[in-house]
Amino acid sequence: MSTQQKWAFAFEDGDGKNKKLLGGKGANLCEMTQIGLNVPPGFVISTEACLAYLEDTSHALPTGVMDQVRAEMTALEQKTGKGFGNPEKPLLVSVRSGSAMSMPGMMDTILNLGLNQDTLQGEIRATGDARFGYDAYRRFVQLFGKVALGVPDEKFDHEFDEVKRAAHAKQDVDLSAADLKDISERFLKVVEEFTGRPFPSDPYEQLEIAIKAVFNSWSGKRAVDYRTQFKITPDMANGTAVNVCTMVFGNRGDDSATGVGFTRNPGTGENKLYGEYLVNAQGEDVVAGIRTPKPLDRLRVEMPQMAKELDELRDKLETHYKEVQDFEFTIERGQLYCLQTRNGKMNATALVRTSVEMEQEGLITKDQALLRIDPTALEQMLFPRLDPSFKAEAVATGLPASPGAASGIAVFDADRAEQMGRDLGQKVILVREETKPEDIHGFFAAQGILTSRGGKTSHAAVVARGMGKPCVAGAEGISVDVSRREAMVGDTQFKEGDTITIDGSNGRVYLGAIPTVEPEFTEELSVLLSWADEKARLKVMANADTPDDARTALKYGAVGIGLARTERMFNDVDRLPTVIEMIVAETPETRQAALDKLLPLQREDFRQLFEVMAPHPVTIRLLDPPIHEFLPDEHQLEQEIADLRGLAQSTRGMTALAGAMGLLHAPEETRREFDALRRTLDPMLVEDAIAKKEAMLRKVRVLYETNPMLGHRGVRLGITFPEIYQMQIRAILEAAAECQKAGMDAHPQIKVPQVCTAQELLKVKAYVDELHQLVQADYGFPVKFKFGTMIEVVRACMRAESLAEEAEFFSFGTNDLTQAAFSFSREDAENKFLPLYNQSNILHDNPFEVLDVKGVGKLMELAVEWGRKVKPDLHVGICGEHGGHPASIAFCDQAGLDYVSCSGPRVPVARLAAAQAALQQAGRKDL
Ligand code: PEP
Ligand code: MG
User: Fold this and answer.
1) What percent of the chain has pLDDT over 70?
2) Are residues 906 and 765 located together in one domain of the fold?
3) Is the distance from the beta carbon of residue 815 to the nearest atom of ligand 1 less than 6 Å?
4) 708 within ligand 1 shell (Cβ under 6 A)
5) Per residue in 624-645, pLDDT tens?
6) Which alpha helices (DSSP H) does 128-202 contain, by range?
7) Mean pLDDT across the chain, nearest whole number?
8) Do 210 and 271 share a structural domain?
9) What pLDDT digit, counting tens, does each position of 646-663 carry?
10) Assigned domain for 151 exists
11) Is the pLDDT of residue 688 over 90?
């Protein structure tokens, strides 16, 4: 790196759009400064400096960084009229992290830097407030000790609590200047004992150590775990910037305060300033949830002028950023400062409502309204809530910090939550007094989070909302005893392992499990999705097998069924015996007899689907899985036969015993009684049962396959057992004939699975054509339908041209196609080697979840191109799991597919993703 490289940027100069270089926080501080908001002066050290520092094994800051930092500090001295290390007018700064992607609480911050014995006295003289000075000092020593020097928090907490106890202070504000002086001295000793060196007093040495500590926090466990969980890759955020900002103090008395605001309510989306504040406090008190803050409405009474200025700040932020902002502010002796802003993390309900309302207010366009929501966030709107008809008494109430309801066993620390939740698969609720960022792994494993302290903007609340997990915060009626793994609510106790329920929508906490109900679509979501449908090019269909599934799909806005898996219909308990009869049949006649019983049942299945979905298409896939999947397990059969044999032996034994005892020649009455008993255990009946089971066992063994996924399934079944496919085809066409004849606009589509050659398709098409003639003749009515193929075998992609000759549509089965393209078993890979492949970056994603664009996608593109060469109007869609995954949907749009098909509850996600894909495509074309 050349010494000319620019590492440090004053807030007046930094490019507010360059978040990669300056981090989100730094870029916004620059932007806010440049649009005239009241931001304390400061500068940003770039993420490039961070990366250069982390790469260099000498642990020195890159050449030139400290020179530029000194130059910027001199500029700060000029702007503030204070001096860094100057005992007369000390300049104090905060040192904060901030990467391109928001990672709330994951990296480190140090406040009040620049204090030492001399500047502390200067600060006390300048403010005339010894209590304030010592309070600032003890905070600095603790934060610097913890973050920069690695001193465990507990060591400070121990000293703090001791002084507090001796002073009989209930709250921190009850501590006197002398108490705080005592605390700061104890803290200095703690640091010296732990590090073996006195606490650094030179402000520039402090600053250099702090900058390095913030840089190091980028590669700390917390931050790395967070990035892994949220899939934050280096191209999204690489390294953290360091923001050095002049300190302003919200703890300078009752005309000072600090708080966090959202320009709109992040829980409901309501267009009203929302947030919390604490009078006479520093920012960390709000975020850490040490004191429970007051709602911002209260500020209108306590500091009306400040509330007015805050409203103005809110308006300026929203007008400029055109996005809901989550901002931090401090009021220092009647002067309002904005210390940070970022796009507000909101739950899905709020995202949708603000999108619709901001468009209606003219703040954003429809396209922007659609693009600002991560489609997967909509899944939160499908989260369960507590069954209102279930009467239960809440034992405690806290703040409704993140909506949704969840039950689970209480656990009292994050490691335990991880162990019970992630490793043992139990549903857990993480119960804490307050949470710290290092609890993050517990959040991932928990169904919900409950804290006894802290506000709605505390760490627990922000993280839970981002994750869409229910959270009740600040339930002060609960006293948590982590060491004993129990909590008291009034006189009631609950221990680790006891089930509790939380409702993050109203803050209520219950003992025991409470049933939940599915949520409803909001009006705003319907509006937003209707806009999405206007913009989307891809149609969204659903994978649905039953009339109920179909109704759900329709409710969620599906415009057809892209995949009805008929094997699901075979699994019905009442039908299974007939299905088994069909499979074990030894002659064509017995097989036909079973199929004759199945025909009317299947016809009715299809008729109902057509009826629910009319006028939308219903794509029915002929039987796919190997038929032995419907038969009993081989080992179980063997066991049952062995048991029957034992029984047969004992009945035979009885007969022999009777002979030996001369019972067979006994008097008439005794013989009659014995015969009756023998008949109940008639060896012939037992033998008969054994014979049936043995026949079944033989069939199971005949049908056994070492690798059924690559075996006798799909169209291969249809060719070896044509009568099965013929029954299904007839059922589809007859159901269609009934519906169409009755005036219903039914659109049946028949698709054939596992096809790899046009010969297979031709063969099935021949059955279809023949049956079509027959059904039309029977019903005296022309029956409309379409015929197409699944494309889920690599060879099918390669032979797309010849398949397109026979098919009116292609439907990509990307579950099987992924399996085939990678030669990864779709059943086993995800539990065996795939997690390691993902962790070690051999594969970026799980290809069964995220479509592998480079490999599987390439096959798809070829198939689309070749298929349309033969048939330009070939209709093409996808029905594998990827059909509901936003990035995969974007690929499908680019690849020119006509529709995606996914499970019903993912349909809203897919509709929004389809709109975004179209908008992004249009954006690309505009370039
Ligand atoms: C597929 O393979 O993608 C598909 C939709 O079929 P199934 O999952 O039923 O094999
Ligand atoms: Mg398949």
Assistant:
1) 93
2) yes
3) yes
4) no
5) 988 887 888 888 889 989 988 8
6) 130-147, 153-166, 177-195
7) 90
8) no
9) 877 776 766 666 666 666
10) yes
11) no
Site to probe by mutation for ligand 1, drawn from 545, 624, 818 as the one with most ligand atoms within 8 Å of Cβ, is 624
- Residue the block writes with tokens 């502390």: 120
881 Cα nearest atom in ligand 1? 3
CA atoms of 478 and 431, how far apart (whole Å): 10
Instruction: Report the atom number in ligand 1 closest to the C-alpha of 815.
Output: 3
CATH number of the domain at 340, please. Answer: 3.30.470.20
User: Are 645 and 588 spatial neighbours (Cβ–Cβ below 8 Å)?
Assistant: no
In a domain, 873, yes or no: yes
Pocket lining: 181 vs ligand 1, CB cutoff 6 Å: no
Among 715, 752, 815, 824, say which to mutate for ligand 1: greatest number of ligand atoms within 8 Å of CB.
Answer: 815
Centre of ligand 2 from the C-alpha of residue 848, in Å: 12
Residues 106 and 227 in one domain: yes
- How far apart, in whole angstroms, are the C-alpha atoms of residue 731 and residue 623? 13
- Residue 112 domain flag: yes
Indicate whether residue 880 lines ligand 1 (CB < 6 A).
yes
Instruction: Give the C-alpha separation, 595 to 443, whole Å.
Output: 52
The enclosing domain of 427 has a CATH number of 3.50.30.10
Residues 383-441 have pLDDT tens digits of 677 887 788 899 999 887 777 899 999 999 988 999 998 888 899 999 998 877 667 78
Same domain, 237 and 279: no
Instruction: Give yes or no: residues 822 and 906 share one domain.
Output: yes
List the domain range (segments joined by +) for residue 187: 117-201
Cα–Cα distances (Å) from 660 to 648, 666, 802, 811, in that order, read 18, 12, 77, 72
196 and 139 share a domain?
A: yes
Which has more confidence, 675 or 771?
Answer: 771
Could you tell me which of 713, 700, 711, 708 has the C-alpha nearest to residue 828?
Answer: 708
| Cβ of residue 545 lying under 6 Å from some atom of ligand 1 | no
What residues are annotated to the active site? 459, 879
pTM: 0.76
Domain final position from 212, 247, 282: 247
Q: Residue 859 Cα, ligand 2 centroid: separation in angstroms?
A: 16
Does the Cβ of 296 fall within 6 Å of ligand 1? no
What tens digit of pLDDT does each residue of 513-563 get?
A: 998 866 767 999 999 999 999 999 999 999 998 898 899 899 999 999 999
Residue nearest to atom 10 of ligand 1 (CA): 816
Q: What is the mean pLDDT of residues 612-631?
A: 92
Task: Give residue-wise pLDDT tens across range 185-214.
Answer: 999 999 999 999 999 999 999 999 999 999
CATH number of the domain at 107, please.
3.30.1490.20
User: Which ligand is nearest to the Cα of residue 565, counting in written order?
Assistant: 1
Q: At what angle do helices 588-613 and 547-555 cross, to 10 degrees?
A: 20
What CATH number is given to the structural domain containing 126? Answer: 1.20.80.30
Query: How many domains would you assign to the chain?
Result: 6
Of 704, 726, 741, the position where a domain reaches its end is 704
Express each pLDDT in 827-863 by its tens digit. 778 767 887 898 888 998 889 889 999 999 999 999 9
pLDDT greater than 50 at residue 1: no
Per residue in 589-609, pLDDT (tens digit) is 999 999 999 999 999 999 999
| Same-domain pairing of 590 and 686 | no
Cβ atoms < 10 Å from Cβ of 777: 9
pLDDT digits (tens, 9 = 90+) for 47-73: 999 999 999 888 899 999 999 999 999
The residues near 653 (Cβ < 8 Å, ≥ 6 apart) are: none
138 assigned to some structural domain: yes
Q: Return the DSSP state at 491.
A: T
The residue whose CA has the least distance to atom 6 of ligand 1 is: 813
User: Which is the closest atom of ligand 1 to the Cα of 814?
Assistant: 3
The two three-digit tokens of residue 291, written as one number: 């004191």
Q: Which residues pair with 259 in a beta bridge?
A: 277, 329
Q: Is 565 in the pocket of ligand 1 (CB under 6 A)?
A: yes
Buried b (16+ CB within 10 A) or exposed e, 189-221: ebbeeeeeeebbeebeebbbbbbbbbbbbbebe
| Domain identity same for 195 and 207 | no
pLDDT of residue 456: 59
